[in-house]
């Protein structure tokens, strides 16, 4: 299968995802995906129908011809092809289809995907694999999944926590690898944001219940920042508290802060706590004051190896994304800023 055929198959997947679920067709793929969307919460309670549809929509929007062309134009060596390797990919399971970009990049690069999927998120990527094989049977030789020990691979892409990353480095360090650890995202506020800006920031905080590395877990705010506007404009997200697991986490963290007399702000479904750390618990967002924008830039520089995404007004912070766009990465927005395609083409 040549590059153009692989690209065309993923463009058809993108079209299918963009039409789903509005375009109801008498198609087996539609029924299979619809079943997963409706019932995957049984296997992972965090995977609500809304969250799965959000992930499907984001992927569908990214798999447009103009975006694929722009992304792949940066890699002229793709046309020449590469010596085919078996790429072991260990995926996380924090948000739906979090491993899709690695899956896409391995296959577009011409390599063989050997995936060990998280038990928390395996049905969706297997569905995509079957969809691609239905389009072109040659994908059957390019996609393999294993539930056991990952074997017979030439390079590794592994995503996990800081703790699991140590094991990955121990076991896979002798192979060419990309090993990803915990990362979090931050938002930089000035106090001059509009109501719309803050409402969009709510998406960056609450999408996927805040479980993604691109979810905002910390706010950088000026000394005199008032939270009234912030709390007023995130009220539409109060439905997160109706989710049992989110509510349990929120209630637990609130109880801990109250019992230990730790100062915090609370609106009934989100806690704001002043804290120097980047990674906040579920139901909590940390904040930290700054004196001037130079302090912000220095903080971001010192913590760049722990930050996945920066949310702000684009003219304020270089390489940031606008409010509401943290969970809509482009194809060229690589996790941990490591160019996965370049890594694969260099094997």
Q: SSE layout and pairings?
A:
Elements: H1 3-19, H2 28-39, H3 49-62, H4 65-72, H5 77-80, E1 86-90, H6 100-108, E2 112-116, H7 123-135, E3 143-145, E4 155-159, H8 162-172, E5 177-180, E6 184-188, H9 195-206, E7 216-222, H10 228-233, H11 244-259, E8 265-266, E9 271-274, E10 284-290, H12 293-302, E11 307-311, H13 340-345
Parallel strand pairs: 1-2, 1-4, 2-3, 4-5, 6-7, 6-11, 7-10, 9-10
Antiparallel strand pairs: 8-9
Helix pairs in contact: 1-3, 2-7
List the defining traits of the structure above:
alpha/beta, six-stranded mixed sheet, Aldehyde Dehydrogenase, Chain A, domain 2, Aldehyde Dehydrogenase, Chain A, domain 1, 13 helices, 2 domains, 347 residues, five-stranded parallel sheet
Notes on the structure:
The chain folds into two domains: 179 residues, Aldehyde Dehydrogenase, Chain A, domain 1; 128 residues, Aldehyde Dehydrogenase, Chain A, domain 2 (3-Layer(aba) Sandwich), CATH 3.40.309.10. It is 40% helix and 15% strand. A six-stranded mixed β-sheet has the order 8-9-10-7-6-11, with helices on both faces. It has a five-stranded parallel β-sheet with strand order 3-2-1-4-5, with helices on both faces. The radius of gyration is 21 Å and the shape is globular. The two termini are 20 Å apart.
CATH superfamily of the largest domain: Aldehyde Dehydrogenase, Chain A, domain 1
The H-and-E topology, N to C, reads as HHHHHEHEHEEHEEHEHHEEEHEH
Helical percentage: 25-40%
Described by strand count, sense and barrel closure, the largest sheet is: 6 strands, mixed
Count the strands? 11
Structure annotation, total helices: 13
List the uncertain runs: none
Q: How many domain modules?
A: 2
Task: Record the strand order, biggest sheet.
Answer: 8-9-10-7-6-11
């Amino acid at each position: 299968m040549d590059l153009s055929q692989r690209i065309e198959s993923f463009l058809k997947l993108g079209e299918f995802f963009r039409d789903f679920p509005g375009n109801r067709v008498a198609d087996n793929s539609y029924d299979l995906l619809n079943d997963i969307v409706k019932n995957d919460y049984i296997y992972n309670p965090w995977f609500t129908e809304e969250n799965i549809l959000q992930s499907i929509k984001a992927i569908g929007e990214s798999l447009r011809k103009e975006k694929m062309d722009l992304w792949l134009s940066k890699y002229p060596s793709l046309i020449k092809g590469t010596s085919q390797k078996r790429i072991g990919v260990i995926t996380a399971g924090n948000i739906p289809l979090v491993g899709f970009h690695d899956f896409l990049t391995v296959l577009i690069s011409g390599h063989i995907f050997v995936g060990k999927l998280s038990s928390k998120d395996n049905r969706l990527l297997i569905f995509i694999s079957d969809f691609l094989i239905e389009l072109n049977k040659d994908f059957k030789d390019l996609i393999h999944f294993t539930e056991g020990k990952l074997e017979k691979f030439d390079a590794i892409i592994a995503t996990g926590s800081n703790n699991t990353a140590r094991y990955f480095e121990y076991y896979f360090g002798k192979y060419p690898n990309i090993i990803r650890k915990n990362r979090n995202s931050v938002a930089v506020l000035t106090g001059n944001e509009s109501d719309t800006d803050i409402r969009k920031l709510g998406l960056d905080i609450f999408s996927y219940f805040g479980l993604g590395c691109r979810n905002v877990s910390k706010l950088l705010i000026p000394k005199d920042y008032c939270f009234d506007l912030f709390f007023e404009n995130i009220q539409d997200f109060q439905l997160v508290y109706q989710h049992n697991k989110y509510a349990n986490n929120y209630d637990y963290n609130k109880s801990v802060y109250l019992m230990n007399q730790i100062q915090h702000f609370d609106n009934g479904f989100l806690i704001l706590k002043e804290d120097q750390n980047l990674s906040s618990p579920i139901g909590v967002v940390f904040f930290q004051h700054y004196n001037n924008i130079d302090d912000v830039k220095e903080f971001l520089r010192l913590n760049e190896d722990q930050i996945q995404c920066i949310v702000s007004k684009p003219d304020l912070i270089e390489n940031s994304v606008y409010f509401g766009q943290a969970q809509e990465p482009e194809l060229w927005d690589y996790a941990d800023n490591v160019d996965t395609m370049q890594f694969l083409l260099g094997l």
